[in-house]
């Protein structure tokens, strides 16, 4: 006798009614539900999650795809997991370590109905290849995407970066350097465009040697400021950073080299993390947690065939001791 047969026999209800209770159907009276749940508890019955998923046609699981976990990604992950959990969904994190084959496993899992949808924070495979998986379920990205098939909750970082540039220029800094992130990123290209536009508008000098790509970490910030301070044309007087970790590295190394901040070097971070708050770094507030909530609601709307709820978002500059 199967577990369902046994529960049905002991409770006095049909297997169909037992199944409705297992699937949280509203078409069961409270008294019936309580009677069947009591029998399940007596039998120490644990429902088969795979069987329930098959009956529902969904797993109630969402995959999150990322190269790895770091301080910038964690607020997005935490907010997404919490929001998904409130709606009854579990989040499975796929870390690729930059390996395209490992990353593709998440997309294959969606094709195999092991997850209902995917949220991308960063990806290394060709975007056209990833877009071909959209027919298997919703895909939403925090990374800016060129493909219309993959919806993105990313904000245009041109706007946020321009806030930082306008801030340092208003405070009298004109020799501006940039520590950019990934060279191929649309975020980086947006920041570069903001720098080119504002320097042209203000007729300020641009030294190409003062701008570097591929700077992501505290150590990267430390190494960059050492190079900039030795520059034959003289050092810059302001440095905008890819994130707050880079800004922290710049600040710590500047202090070791007895460079006065902000008198001799102004420093602006990006994301407005706890690190920026702790070290007193001026930073661009990037509403990461809210972007994660928007990402989940886009996925949920696609799964349920409803209109997505989206929070209106904007960058803000938070001034602290480094400018």
Please characterize this protein's 3D structure.
The chain is built from 13 helices and eleven strands. The chain is α/β, with parallel strands linked by helices and 323 residues long. α1 packs across α2, α1 crosses α3 and α5 runs parallel beside α13. The longest helix has 17 residues, at 288-304.
Oligomer: single chain
The run of helices and strands is: HHHHEHEHEHEEHEHEHEHEHEHE
Query: What order do the strands of the largest sheet run in, or round the barrel if closed?
Result: 7-6-8-9-10-11
Strand content: 5-15%
Rg is 26 Å
Count of alpha/pi helices = 13
Q: Structural class, please?
A: alpha/beta
In short:
By secondary structure, this protein is an alpha/beta fold. The chain is 45% helix and 14% strand. It has 13 helices and 11 strands.
Features:
single chain; 323 residues; alpha/beta; five-stranded parallel β-sheet; 45% helix
Q: Which SSEs are present, and which pair or pack?
A:
Elements: H1 3-11, H2 15-22, H3 30-42, H4 49-56, E1 61-66, H5 74-86, E2 90-95, H6 100-111, E3 117-120, H7 127-131, E4 139-141, E5 151-152, H8 157-170, E6 176-179, H9 186-201, E7 211-212, H10 218-229, E8 238-241, H11 244-256, E9 266-271, H12 274-279, E10 282-285, H13 288-304, E11 316-318
Parallel strand pairs: 1-2, 1-3, 3-4, 4-5, 6-7, 6-8, 8-9, 9-10
Antiparallel strand pairs: 10-11
Helix pairs in contact: 1-2, 1-3, 5-13, 8-9, 10-11
